[in-house]
Amino acid sequence: MIPVCRLEDLPEGGSVRIDTAPPIAVFHADGELYAIDDTCTHQDASLSEGWVEGCLVECPLHEASFDLRTGRPTCLPARRPVRTHRVTVDDGVVHVHPAAEEGSAA
Ligand code: FES
């Protein structure tokens, strides 16, 4: 579990990128916290720099849109989903629980 920031530092509509490998983007959208892989599956854009509307984030480069709840793209040009990660708030601090890498023993 990775501490991200204090909850008050991630206001509604905000996002933050954490330098994990691969990087993860955390969003406060539609009253909830969501974490997905930061790198768009189309090319290498950072989704934390995208535009959030409701539960969707639009890639800043070619405007593919991803559902923050599922990681699935809702339109082209992205075809593959991004991974989603669990987010918790503990004592006012936002934490991300990275999904285990595929094939890892963790
Ligand atoms: S890099 Fe995201 S849609 Fe192209």
Topology pattern, helix = H, strand = E = EEEEEEEEE
Classify the helix fraction into a percent range: under 10%
Low-confidence stretches: 102-106
Q: How do the strands of the widest beta sheet line up side by side?
A: 1-9-8-4-3-2
Q: Ligands bound here?
A: FE2/S2 (inorganic) cluster
Mean pLDDT: 94
Beta-strand content: 35-45%
Task: State Rg.
Answer: 13 Å
* Structural category: mainly beta
- What count of helical segments does DSSP give? 0
Specify the biggest β-sheet: 6 strands, antiparallel
Number of strands: 9
Task: Describe the model.
There is one protein chain. With 106 residues, the protein is mainly beta. It is built from no helices and 9 strands. The strands form 2 sheets. The chain has a 6-stranded antiparallel sheet with strand order 1-9-8-4-3-2, with no helix packed on it. A 3-stranded antiparallel sheet has the order 5-6-7, with no helix packed on it. It is globular. Residues 102-106 have low confidence and may be disordered. It binds FE2/S2 (inorganic) cluster. FE2/S2 (inorganic) cluster binds next to loops.
